[in-house]
Specification:
This is Heterokaryon incompatibility domain-containing protein. The protein has 1008 residues and is an alpha/beta fold. It has 44 helices and 18 strands. A hairpin with a 2-residue loop joins β17 and β18.
């Protein structure tokens, strides 16, 4: 692509054929006589300035300069038409060139701002605008539709308006839909519609009636001037071939569906056949103009979600993407769209960005909006506005059928034959065993109104041998009468039949005298406190193990600076014997040996009645609940029971917190459960319990959220907790120091460094007044403050404080964890202060000692090795740094998920080391992977994500990818300005790099 520019002497010149094209403006106009137009040869020879068309070229250049653009493009003189290859390439690229222009100027040579007609009447430009031949020429169609910024100018060069401000007039003149003028994907309009837009437009050559539409249809074909009307025939053939090829090649790329379909699924073939036909028709009609929305409504548990899963499996191969969003609560819905944004690598600061990003996809997709049950919510807000997708909405609310544009299914009970088949299948009866059971099965199916989930529950109940099919109605009726009075009144219409079925299963457990039944009844409400997703049973074992430590001799307990275990008394919000006493009985906290069988049997007792499901991952059992069962299990408890359940499950989490290895490995699975636990009301959690003991649970959950990098959830939690307790940073009681330590850490993690330092200085002052200089709790507060000083750039203060902490710690054994932790942090402060030799010497000693006492995959050992590698790199011992970091990354890859923060941090460090070692390609490749993973799991303003993106920008710049680096760094700076203080070191650093990028780009004329 060649571009024009005016040189300093006012002469017009052409660039070479550019590969890396700078920003440019583009002219849209109608041609006069060929002899009047300035052409390629004129520019090459410096002539043509006396031609009539030179005025519009000068206008374009001057307008571009006003818009701070150096380059511009005009079709008459930027293409060498004598070169047939170049001319053909230009015609096929024209739509893209107009689309990519920063500004498009439409020069209307037949429109004057004020004109006098033949009758001597003065007329405004609007009349001439409607009659302009610009709207009658073939080539100007793509020039109007392709660019985002289109501005109209009169013959005098006066601005008349833009495509946006004049869209209604343009729509009336051309018949082009307003949505197309607003740059909607043209693929959403039918072939005939787009052909219609050009039907009344003329071109000088017959063949151009086809060639001017290549970009409109997104196709390419060679130019054969002389073929006449056959060009339109070839265009049609090319369009059809492109559409067929797209259909074949799309396939399923993205599959974001939460679970596989139920093996017991039975029937519904007529509904599925109809829905499949609807989806297939929509997926194959890329040019439809109406949205395709399917609504499946019906009573909870009838199988709406299962039908959606079956449908997704049937049409999966047709669709580029299949996505699933649980809209039962606003938070789940918003997180679902953010997950979609992460999967599609769409930058999203709000959930609406994920929804819009999906709407912009021009390939066929399907989205299931599941559990749209709240009658007070307008679910239209969750519908992507695009036309290339199919939306399937499931709801218990029949009013949601109003959203349907393609198909609405009011799901009733199963047909009686399908209902009995499902019941018998769920009960485990083979075909040979079913003889003589038909009447009893029909009775149960009728009793349960052929309700799918109720039938599965009933089948599981019978299959376990608690009663026969013939006896089941009596058991059900007996339980129903008692339970209807027990059920919360607000839930009757929502869960009536299903709840009664669930309670029938619980009734059997209550009547049983087995230990597993009693344990199952204790476990059920605990699971209801968590989320419905997979939860590893290893959590309970960890709680038992740590309970042994708490119940035993606590004199050996040490103070780990890397956790929140920072006290020697209950007033530091540490789990105590009170928390051990509140653990579930099935954990057997006071027994000397862990009894996994008891817990597994309790799970199996629930699984028998299909109240839970299990799976195995890396030899560890996971348990989950259907969302409907999960809701029932919570709702069936009155307020005091819910409180007791929360306390018990909260103690499981709080006590297990010290098992760092378990939380590192399973943190990803446990995170949604931790979020569910911390979403409970404060009043329900505290009630009449001791504030300190309950606050300990919340604080432990908070430290876990901090370790997972869930800074926003933690910020909200801390505000709620401090508000409930009436705590104020201006007056800190020693009881709440650990809570305020957590709050200070959250300040640091969120970039509020000044707030963190201010709070930590108060905490240290509080500790100094109350404790001796060698008291572990006092040392801990000093340690954290020193870390904040280092992050804030107060390096000398950090060094001074840490040297004091290390001096006092000399009384401890040389391999004592707290002593090593303080030396580790002091070494980092030395390095930040430029005392590199001291840092290296201290870190090498810490690594040596930790290597002797810790396993190779212990996080403290790996953390010190990581820090030592960074020190080696700073000391220009780059090969040592690379070798050590490669080892750290290798070990972490064996034990941590790919998105674990520690793993990503080590990969980030290794990428920096590769860069320093001249292995730039490896550095960029590794950092690209880190940035991609972080974009999927972290908010766009998360500190770690921005740090990686900043580093990637600098690498891209140095490897010549300057346009991308500049664009990315602008985004980093924009976000950091939004979330960080004006003098935050990271914000300042990014701003300095951006200034450098901007200066260099301007210097070389490469402003992005």
């Amino acid at each position: 692509m060649r571009l024009l520019k005016f040189d300093n002497d006012g002469s017009l010149s052409l660039t070479d054929d550019l590969q890396d094209v700078p920003s440019y403006a583009i002219l849209s106009h109608t041609w006069g006589a060929d002899s009047d137009e300035v052409n390629f040869d004129d520019i090459q020879h410096g002539s043509g300035m006396n031609k009539p068309s030179y005025a519009k070229i000068r206008f374009c250049g001057e307008q571009a300069r006003k818009d701070k653009l150096e380059y511009f493009w005009v079709d008459t003189c930027c293409i060498n038409k004598a070169n047939h290859t170049e001319y053909s390439e230009a015609i096929n690229s024209m739509f893209r060139w107009y689309r990519d222009a920063a500004h498009c100027y439409v020069y209307l040579s037949d429109v004057l701002v004020n004109s006098i007609d033949d009758d001597g009447v003065k007329r405004t430009w609007k009349v001439a605008f409607r009659k302009s031949r610009y709207f009658k020429r073939g080539w100007t169609l793509q020039e109007l539709l392709a660019p985002t910024s289109v501005e109209f100018f009169s013959q005098e060069g006066d601005r008349l308006g833009s495509k946006n401000t004049l869209e209604q007039q343009i729509h009336e003149i051309t018949g082009i839909p307003v949505v197309a003028l607003r740059n909607a994907p043209l693929s959403q309009f039918t072939v005939d519609e787009r052909m219609g837009w050009a039907a009344k437009r003329d071109t000088k050559k017959k063949e151009d009636k086809a060639y001017c539409l290549l970009g409109i249809f997104g196709v390419f074909m060679p130019l054969i001037y002389g073929e006449g009307e056959n060009a339109l025939v070839r265009l049609r053939e090319t369009i059809d071939k492109s559409r067929n090829s797209t259909s074949r090649e799309n396939g399923n790329i993205h599959w974001m569906v939460p679970r596989s379909s139920n093996a017991l699924f039975t029937g519904r073939e007529d509904i599925l056949d109809s829905l499949e036909k609807t989806v297939r028709a929509a997926a194959q009609d890329c040019w439809r103009t109406d949205p395709c929305c399917i609504v499946i409504s019906g009573l909870g548990g009838q199988g709406k979600s299962e039908i959606s899963l079956q449908l997704a499996q049937r049409v999966r191969s047709l669709l580029w993407g299949v996505f699933w969003v649980d809209v039962s609560t606003p938070s789940l819905a918003e997180n679902g769209y953010l997950d979609i944004a992460g999967l599609l690598q769409i930058s999203a600061s709000r959930w609406e960005d994920g929804r819009q990003g999906l709407a912009n996809i021009s390939k066929p997709w399907m989205l299931v909006l599941d559990n749209a049950d709240d009658p007070h919510v307008d679910y239209q807000a969750y519908f992507p506005p695009g036309l290339c997708g199919v939306v399937v909405l499931t709801s218990r609310n029949a009013d949601c059928q109003q959203y349907a544009t393609a198909d609405a299914v009011a799901l009733e009970g199963l047909p009686i034959d399908e209902a009995t088949e499902l019941l018998l299948k769920a009960a485990g009866f083979t075909h040979d065993q079913r003889s003589g059971l038909e009447d009893d099965a029909l009775g149960v199916a009728a009793l349960l109104q052929s309700h799918a989930l109720a039938l599965i529950q009933a089948g599981a109940y019978v299959g376990r041998g608690h009663c026969t099919l013939g006896e089941y109605p009596e058991v059900y009726e007996r339980q129903r009468k008692r339970l209807l009075g027990f059920r919360p009144t607000q839930a009757q219409s929502r869960y009536r039949d299903v709840y009664a079925t669930f309670e029938a299963s619980v009734g059997t457990l209550q009547a049983s005298e087995t230990q597993s039944s009693r344990d199952a009844l204790e476990l059920l409400p605990l699971l209801a406190v968590c989320g419905p997703n997979h939860i590893p049973l290893l959590l309970f074992e960890s709680a038992w193990r740590e309970a042994q430590r708490i119940s035993g001799d606590q004199s050996d307990y040490h103070y780990d600076y890397h956790s929140d275990d920072q006290s020697d008394d209950v007033h530091d919000l540490e789990p105590s014997t009170w928390h051990v006493s509140r653990l579930p009985l099935l954990i057997q906290a006071y027994e000397d040996a862990w009894d996994s069988i008891r817990l597994v049997e309790a799970v199996n007792a629930l699984k028998v009645f299909a109240l839970v499901s299990t799976s195995v991952n890396n030899e560890h059992m996971l348990v989950s609940m259907h969302p409907l069962v999960h809701a029932w299990a919570r709702d069936r408890q009155h307020e005091q029971q819910q409180h007791a359940s929360w306390i018990a499950m909260g103690c499981v989490v709080a006590v297990s917190r010290s098992d760092g290895a378990m939380w590192r490995v399973h943190g990803r699975q446990l995170r949604p459960h931790l979020q569910a636990i911390t979403s409970w009301e404060m009043r329900s959690a505290f009630q009449s319990e001791p504030n300190v003991d309950v606050a300990c649970i919340w604080t432990k959950c908070g430290w876990l959220l901090q370790a997972m990098g869930d800074d926003k959830t933690l910020f909200i939690l801390l505000n709620r907790l401090c508000s409930y307790l009436g705590l104020d940073e201006s007056a800190i009681d020693t009881v709440w120091v650990n809570l305020f330590n957590l709050k200070a850490q959250n300040h640091l993690d969120c970039g509020r460094i000044k707030d963190a330092v201010q709070l930590l200085e108060k905490l240290v002052q509080t500790r100094e007044h109350a404790l001796t200089e060698d008291h572990p709790s006092r040392l801990v507060s000093q340690y954290i403050l020193a870390t904040a000083y280092r992050v804030d750039g107060q390096v000398q203060d950090a060094v001074k404080l840490l040297e004091e902490v290390v001096r006092i710690s000399q009384t401890l054994a040389e391999d004592q964890p707290d002593r090593l932790a303080s030396q580790h942090e002091l070494a980092r402060a030395y390095q930040a202060d430029g005392q590199l030799n001291k840092a290296l010497q201290l870190l090498e000693e810490v690594v040596r000692l930790r290597s002797q006492i810790l396993a190779e995959d212990h996080p403290d050992r790996l953390s010190s090795q990581h820090a030592l590698a960074l020190a080696y790199q700073a000391d220009e011992q780059v090969e040592k740094a690379v070798s050590l970091l490669e080892e750290v990354v290798r070990i972490q890859a064996q034990m941590l998920a790919e998105d674990h923060p520690d793993q990503l941090a080590s990969q980030h460090g290794l990428a920096r080391a590769y860069q320093a070692n001249g292995q730039v390609e490896k550095a960029v490749q590794l950092l690209e992977e880190v940035v991609q993973i972080q974009a999927q799991m972290l908010a766009e303003d998360h500190s770690n994500r921005l740090t990686s993106e900043h580093l990637l920008c600098t690498m891209l710049w140095k490897t010549g990818q300057r346009s991308r680096a500049l664009k990315m760094m602008r985004n980093v700076v924009e976000i950091r300005r939004r979330v960080l203080d004006h003098d935050h070191p990271k914000r300042t650093l990014s701003e300095e790099w951006l200034d450098y990028f901007e200066d260099e780009s301007s210097k070389w004329g490469q402003v992005a």
